[in-house]
Specification:
With about 300 residues, the protein is α/β, with parallel strands linked by helices. Helix 3 crosses helix 12, helix 4 packs across helix 12 and helix 10 packs across helix 11. The N and C termini lie far apart (about 50 Å). Strand 1 and strand 2 form a beta hairpin. Strands 1, 2, 3, 4, 5, 6, 7, 8 and 9 form a 9-stranded mixed β-sheet that branches. The chain has a single domain, classed as Rossmann fold (3-Layer(aba) Sandwich).
């Protein structure tokens, strides 16, 4: 197997560019208005190992730069994403999404670092409703929403605890039907930064795209189905260099180039408009989540 000099959280980018798809992987593409929707199903352990992604379903929406979308396109994208969120939720939980359904929203990432702040910024625009079910049941009934709780656990350097540890403790107490984890991702291709939304039902490993291998948030580790929602905001310098060389037709790197590529995995770049991008993505995500789970609060 050839050594990889790039990193990506996007399943679509991990499928070989040769056009030959491994057995155990199904890929379908469809159009929805101006958006291209790509679905990747990883069905076997062998396929999962070959692309470095867990068994599961990965939905990718290519929408163009989030900060360049007009209001109408943002609303269209949010509604499209909300429908996919509900569909994924009903499939993994095997039940309908209604007022008896409980969702735990997790905003992963560092709110103090703009490129990593999509999760916390999204939660700031949402309303929790889980407390209303007990303290104001009439209002909860009128809202026609799910029971929604939320948490932004921060990062290890802020809390001294892994995000997974905090989330597992909360899940043991709250016992939600579903976790939706929102996070910033890493991409292989610069053109996908702030331009691609990924939704998956295989869970998420916080920081995996930038080489920080933390405790995974999956049904196996948490005990609850986990949907992961994110947009790539960074690319590693080694990924950027290797992808550019590959596009130019370069062959296998020599020893000196390999050393440079391996050291570049610790450095990441983002768009210069990162603050605007993060804000716009959080608006789209919060709108989609509201439409999917918050009933009349989305009106």
């Amino acid at each position: 197997m050839k050594e990889r000099y790039w990193q990506s959280d996007l399943a679509k980018e991990c499928i070989p560019d040769t056009g030959k798809i491994d057995q155990g992987i199904l890929q379908k593409t469809r159009k929805c208005g101006d958006f291209l929707i790509d679905t990747v199903q990883v069905l076997t352990p062998e396929a999962a190992q070959s692309i470095g992604k867990p068994i599961g379903n990965y939905l990718t929406i290519e929408c163009g730069r989030a900060d360049h979308l007009c209001d109408e396109d943002r609303e269209t994208l949010a509604r499209l994403l909300s429908g996919e969120l509900r569909g994924f939720a009903e499939r993994v939980c095997r039940r309908s999404v209604d007022s008896s359904f409980s969702v735990f929203l997790v905003g992963l990432g560092n709110a103090s670092l703009t490129a990593d702040a999509i999760g916390p910024f999204t939660l700031r625009r949402l309303n929790a409703t889980a407390h209303l079910k007990e303290h104001d049941p009439m209002l909860f009934s009128d809202l026609e929403c799910c029971s929604v709780s939320m948490l932004a656990p921060g990062v290890l350097g802020q809390s001294g605890m892994e995000a997974g540890e905090i989330i597992r403790a909360v899940v043991r107490e709250c016992k939600p039907d579903l976790i939706v984890a929102i996070d910033a991702l890493a991409a292989r291709d610069l053109e996908r930064l702030a331009s691609t939304v990924q939704l998956s039902d295989s869970g998420i490993i916080p920081g995996s795209g930038i080489g920080n291998h933390r405790s995974g948030l999956t049904k196996e580790t948490i005990g609850v189905p986990v949907l992961a929602l994110g947009v790539p905001t960074v690319v590693s310098t080694s990924t950027l260099v290797w992808h550019t060389l590959a596009k130019a037709g370069a062959g296998e790197p020599d020893e000196r180039m390999r050393s440079l590529l391996q050291s570049g995995g610790d450095f990441f770049v983002s768009l210069k408009e990162c603050d605007t991008v993060t804000e716009q993505i959080s608006i789209i995500f919060s709108r989609a989540i509201s439409l999917a789970f918050l009933g009349r609060l989305a009106e």
